Amino acid sequence: MRIFLSFLAVRSAGLVKLPVPFRISAFRFVSSYTSFNLFFSSAALFLLIIILQASCYTLPPETSNKYPLLRLQEKYSIYLDSTWTTKDAAALLKVFEAVSPDILNPQFSSWNISDDALENGIKIELKDKSKHVTISRDALPTEESQGIASPEKRLFHAVVQFITENGTNRSAIKSIMKKRYGIDVPSHAALPPRTKNNTAKGYSDFGNDDLMLIMSVLEEFPQGLHKTPQLKYIVRRIDTEEKGISSAMVSRGYITFAESIFLRHRDHGDGLGRFHRDDTRKIIAHEKAHFLWWYVFDPQLKKDWVKLGGWQQDLTSESGWSTTQERSAFVTEYAYTENPDEDMAESIGFYFIYPDKLRACCPAKYEFIHNRIMLMYGKRWSPSNPM
Ligand SMILES: [Zn+2]
């Protein structure tokens, strides 16, 4: 049996076409053995190893790395052209699996990479009844972006554009809101009973573009903070001059946004103040931050923040708090006059949207949020939420 194996190995070795110098050294190596059996069994083993190695070398080098390409085809009907490297394909697959783990009946699409700068990093075209997608190269993670909290952020936004059909597919938008951020978007006519002043007349439905804007802000938070189980849904309340509400407010389990903060570029002639898009984004980040303060941050973190802001409890003050520090040490008047919770919410809003302003007024607060919150929770991810 051993001889037969050796024979097979030697026969097969002939097919491998080893380079001549290598074959000579192999025979020199085994000739030092005195036992005939040992000679053949060792030679067989040695040659089998060479055959196995040689069989790897005969395949194209990228074959073993085709998993991302094949997976994208199989699961999402996405076909990548030759502009994609295996690394780029792996980044795209990672984002797809994070955004939409169970997309159903996806339409065939072919994808290429372009050096052109594209709005949202993506261009989707319908040609010959199939989708052609161009991703701009600067949306892909690079070597330099590996050190930051979420190198795939730009690619994420591009993929969300694709899955939501440029923000027009409402059920896809609602599905991402629910699966990635744990937030429901109920119809204004069927709000959960606990919603305050709950009449369909008082509320309106979010537009798809409102929800895309909200998602873009929620995505800014590190992966460990994307879902806050106590933040269950969001509502959009009609604010008129008679029954105006503040831009937004938090209640148990949900956030109420004033309709006016989303009506940015529309002129209704009703005299209501218009919001800049970034101000709306800051409000969204601010409200989300309240849920973190209430339900996520540990007591030590809050204690350290209170100390950093010079806060002390003060029963003579309307908010129950006062600070020993000057107004200039706070990012807004509101952060200064309220309490540590509002100071944190305002500071987080500025951290994302106007970071230079926060760095300028309050460098220690900027560092606190960056190191103690963003970097810390950026590391706390689970396999079900891989980016
Ligand atoms: Zn607030």
Layout: helices, strands, pairs:
Blueprint: H1 2-16, H2 20-31, H3 36-57, H4 67-76, E1 78-80, H5 86-99, E2 109-114, E3 122-127, E4 130-136, H6 153-163, H7 170-181, E5 203-204, H8 208-218, E6 233-237, E7 248-251, E8 254-258, H9 277-295, H10 299-308, E9 311-313, E10 321-323, H11 333-337, H12 340-353, H13 355-361, H14 363-378
Parallel strand pairs: 1-2, 2-4, 6-8
Antiparallel strand pairs: 3-4, 5-6, 7-8, 9-10
Helix pairs in contact: 1-3, 4-5, 5-6, 7-8, 8-9, 9-12, 12-13, 13-14
Write up what this structure looks like:
With 387 residues, the protein is an alpha/beta fold. It is built from 14 helices and ten strands. The strands form three sheets. It has a four-stranded mixed beta sheet with strand order 1-2-4-3. Strands 5-6-8-7 form a four-stranded mixed beta sheet, covered by helices on one side. Strand 3 and strand 4 (130-136) form a beta hairpin. Helix 1 (2-16) runs parallel beside helix 3 (36-57) and helix 13 (355-361) crosses helix 14 (363-378). It starts with a helix and ends in a 9-residue tail after the last helix. Bound molecules: zinc ion (ZN). Zinc ion binds at residues 286, 290, 342, 345.
